[in-house]
Design brief:
This protein is an alpha+beta fold and about 260 residues long. It is built from six helices and twelve strands. Strands 1, 2, 4, 5, 6, 9 and 10 form a seven-stranded mixed beta sheet that branches. The protein has a five-stranded mixed beta sheet with strand order 3-12-11-7-8, with no helix packed on it. Helix 1 packs across helix 2. The longest helix has 17 residues. The chain is globular, with a radius of gyration of 17 Å.
């Protein structure tokens, strides 16, 4: 990692201030040398540690940029991850306050919840499958602190995967009751279809994405733990959201998950 600690702190300050004031900042990528993704994750880790020090409760991780459609939207070519905190959750069927966000977007995906730690050096597929207690449909509300969503991979990594809020469905399903590969997804805005996709759009299978995360987090020395929520990544394109709209996602094999913006 080539980025000096003082610069890591400065980038974290800028991102924190953008979130607090809801005034987006210019991209960071031109100030991070040689496409240094480890340095961008160092900025994310600094923000995570600050939030934990302030009393935040880490409840899981999100995987981003798993869908080719979303990668194309943002001009990136690899997945990333970010931290989920308890105060980021919005209950299904309730409201999300857009006045606390900058330029939110929404995507539908599958979430899994673990019931055992995944702290092997390189977890295998069987270890991951044993560790998953259940799956639920989810909505992720993303929001870039970078102006006009002008982001590259370094910007979104530093900005905690552009995460903001998440919504979990209320009817869990066991994996053996699901076909996540072929599960279709339709996202509705006020009853009108605005995004479609399937499990295959998420790195080929949502479990592939979860395995990528489990191995990446173990390699980083921060393995996934029992109780963690894992948002496995978008099944289709993101949509811009505005106050007054209601979103309803339907993913094959699951009940609905909804949120309204005010």
């Amino acid at each position: 990692m080539s980025l000096a600690q003082s610069l890591i702190g400065r980038f974290a300050d800028r991102l924190q201030e953008a979130e607090r004031t809801r005034v987006a900042i210019s991209p960071l990528r031109t100030e991070i040398e040689d496409g240094d993704i480890a340095a961008a994750y160092a900025v994310q880790n600094e923000l995570t540690n600050r939030r934990l020090a302030a009393g935040g409760r880490l409840v899981g991780r999100k995987i981003g940029l798993t869908s080719k459609a979303v990668q194309a939207q943002l001009g990136v070519d690899q997945p990333d991850y970010g931290a989920l905190f308890a105060d980021m959750e919005v209950l299904s069927g309730e409201v999300c306050d857009t006045s606390r966000l900058i330029r939110p977007r929404i995507e539908a995906e599958v979430a899994v919840v673990l019931d055992r730690d995944l702290d092997a050096e390189c977890p295998g597929t069987a270890e991951l499958l044993r560790a998953i207690a259940f799956a639920v449909p989810a909505l992720e509300i993303v929001d870039s602190r970078i102006a006009n969503w002008d982001i590259g991979i370094l910007d979104t990594v530093a900005d905690n995967g552009s995460s903001a809020r998440f919504v979990l469905g209320l009817e869990p399903r066991c994996l053996d009751a699901l076909d996540l590969l072929t599960s279709g997804m339709v996202l509705y805005r006020d009853g009108a279809q605005v995004s479609v996709g399937s499990g295959a759009a998420c790195l080929g299978h949502p479990i592939n994405a979860a395995l990528w995360l489990a191995r990446t987090m173990a390699a980083a020395g921060t393995p996934l733990r029992a109780g963690d929520v894992v948002l496995t990544g978008a099944l289709g394109p993101m949509c811009d959201v505005r106050a007054g709209e209601k979103y309803d996602a339907r993913i094959g094999g699951f009940g609905p998950v909804t949120v309204e913006f005010v």
